[in-house]
Design brief:
Length: about 230
């Protein structure tokens, strides 16, 4: 049985407004709102962000990502990200999710610091760009120093199950300084094991079970039932 002396948090990645509404109804604790699943998630349109905000009474975090592909952005792309962050702040979005790397896949401290400062007082999450970094622990230390509240990671592996040992180490060493959110391939058939082995209390899942980009409400309910 999982430790229920604290509250687990289940964040669901949603790629359209319909999924946001269905995830909330199915019991999600927080939404990470993205667009374009095939690109791994980019910033949704402003109209969709506003619509999702109106629909939701649970926290809404919006991904700030100018394009698909790598996480090395040029000056114009950083300016786009700043513009999107300001839009989210002006419309009372609860949090934003982003990550900027250097060309050698290390943390771009300068760019991330600028974006974090701009985003305050919203919650700021560094996304799975960290899984492209060779040294996860050093990268985590830099992310903490920059001021991120949360980090979404699969422990540097293809999915959280494969990265379970690294996730456990990171939670033990840094879990009191930053919220570590396992993500990547998390489903109802493995979330219990990942929770037990890592000690993490927040989890991220797209809850997609077929070729559709609409969340599976039953899968969300199974995820919640496993945790609670």
């Amino acid at each position: 049985m999982l430790n229920t002396s604290f509250k687990y948090v289940l964040e669901i990645a949603c790629f359209n407004v319909q999924s946001c509404a269905q995830a909330q109804e199915a019991g999600a604790d927080r939404i990470e709102f993205c667009d374009n699943y095939s690109l791994g998630g980019i910033t949704p349109s402003q109209a969709d962000i506003i619509e999702a905000k109106k629909l939701l009474h649970i926290p809404l975090h919006v991904i700030i990502r100018a394009r698909g592909g790598n996480f090395v952005y040029d000056t114009d792309e950083i300016e786009m990200m700043k513009h999107d962050i300001l839009f989210c702040k002006e419309h009372n979005i609860d949090g934003v999710v982003f990550g900027v790397l250097n060309s050698d896949d290390t943390i771009d401290v300068k760019a991330n610091r600028e974006l974090v400062e701009l985003a305050k007082p919203m919650s700021v999450t560094f996304h799975r760009a960290i899984d492209s970094c060779e040294n996860i622990e050093k990268s985590l230390e830099e992310i903490i120093e920059i001021g991120f509240n949360k980090v979404l990671t699969s422990g540097g592996k293809q999915n959280a199950l494969n990265g379970i040992e690294t996730l456990k180490i990171c939670q033990e060493k840094y879990g009191e300084k930053i919220t570590i959110i396992p993500g990547g391939g998390i489903r109802s058939n493995n979330i219990g094991l990942i929770a037990k082995e890592t000690g993490c209390i927040q989890f991220h899942s797209a809850a997609l079970t077929n070729s559709s980009d609409i969340v599976d409400a039953n899968e969300i309910k199974y995820l919640k039932a496993t945790l609670f």
